[in-house]
Amino acid sequence: MIQTEKLRKVYSSKIAVNDVSFEVDKGVIFGLLGPNGAGKTTTIRMILNIILPDSGRVLFDGIPFSEETKNRIGYLPEERGLYRKNKVGDTIEYFGSLKNMNHLDIKKQTKYWLERFDIKDRITGKVEELSKGNQQKIQFIISVLHNPDVLILDEPFSGFDPVNQDLLKDILIELKKSGKAIIFSTHQMEQVEKLCDGICLINDGKVVLSGNLNDVKKRHGNNSIKLSFSGDASFIKNYPEVKYINIFENYAEMTVTDKFLLKNFIDEANKKLDIKGFQIAEPSLHSIFVEKVGVTKVEETH
């Protein structure tokens, strides 16, 4: 469905995107990940033909971008793109007309999506009167109104409470099952793990990790340990064989080197902690992300 081949974009002396390649098929949810400034937005804008690559190309079903292609894409930008003084219904109708939808189809789809998001009573209100979460709903509705083949969503869960996050998750799964190709960029690793079939992690404009999500986690799984305990586990940070650790009140997840000896660690940790359980397990995407891009850059994304 969508194929990027060696996309490259340079601004002045800065290489924003450097040979980024990936492929997204129909019926797939694909996560485009990376810290702030990694090149995700530039990549998305090249896919959308908003900016042109200095080299490389983007193909849709094997052909370059065209006016026909444009109407097959739905785009949800991270920044708000709504006319705040306009009424909700008028705003949706305007964006539907830009996709060459007829009036009756716009009305039908508007009714369906407003009811689906439980905001049908807001159709005559102004956009500026909506909460941040409801504005995000309107932006999402605009992106799917014309029934696109491809959805590109930049931080789609932004502004949503847990209930609406679950609703959006269900909708994305339905759209996937209907054959849509979905690309979404987010900092919420938990949502990526729940939804994505494949991922591409970009750092400093380059692809540092890509592929099927399950395969990626298996490749990093041998050196991941999950530990439940009572006590103060901060001393584990001083172990030279521990590359990364994320410590909670009674739980820790860590990535270790090949020199790490689990039995020796457990014997020593038992002297300082009341260990409830441990397992060598599949790592979280969060820990893989941190390992690949560094703790400092992860902190900068929040």
Describe the overall structure.
- The structure is a single chain.
- The protein is an alpha/beta fold.
- The protein folds into two domains: about 1-210, Rossmann fold (3-Layer(aba) Sandwich), CATH 3.40.50.300; about 220-280, Alpha-Beta Plaits.
- It has eleven helices and 14 strands.
- It has helices at about 40-45, 65-70, 90-100, 105-115, 130-145, 160-175, 190-195, 215-220, 260-270, 285-295, 295-300; strands at about 1-10, 15-25, 30-35, 55-60, 65, 75, 150-155, 180-185, 200-205, 205-210, 225-230, 240-245, 250-255, 275-280.
- Strands 6-7-8-3-9-10 form a six-stranded mixed beta sheet, sandwiched between helices. Strands 2-1-4-5 form a four-stranded antiparallel beta sheet, with helices on one face.
- A hairpin with a 3-residue loop joins strand 12 (about 240-245) and strand 13 (about 250-255).
- The relative contact order is 0.14.
- Mean pLDDT is about 90; it is low at about 295-300.
Keywords summarizing the entry:
302 residues; alpha/beta; Rossmann fold; Alpha-Beta Plaits; six-stranded mixed sheet; four-stranded antiparallel sheet; 14 strands; 34% helix; globular
Reconstruct the topology from this structure.
Layout: E1 2-11, E2 14-24, E3 28-33, H1 40-47, E4 55-60, E5 63-64, H2 67-70, E6 73-76, H3 88-98, H4 103-116, H5 132-144, E7 150-154, H6 162-177, E8 181-185, H7 189-195, E9 198-203, E10 206-212, H8 213-219, E11 224-230, E12 242-247, E13 251-256, H9 262-269, E14 274-280, H10 285-293, H11 295-300
Parallel strand pairs: 3-8, 3-9, 6-7, 7-8
Antiparallel strand pairs: 1-2, 1-4, 4-5, 9-10, 11-13, 11-14, 12-13
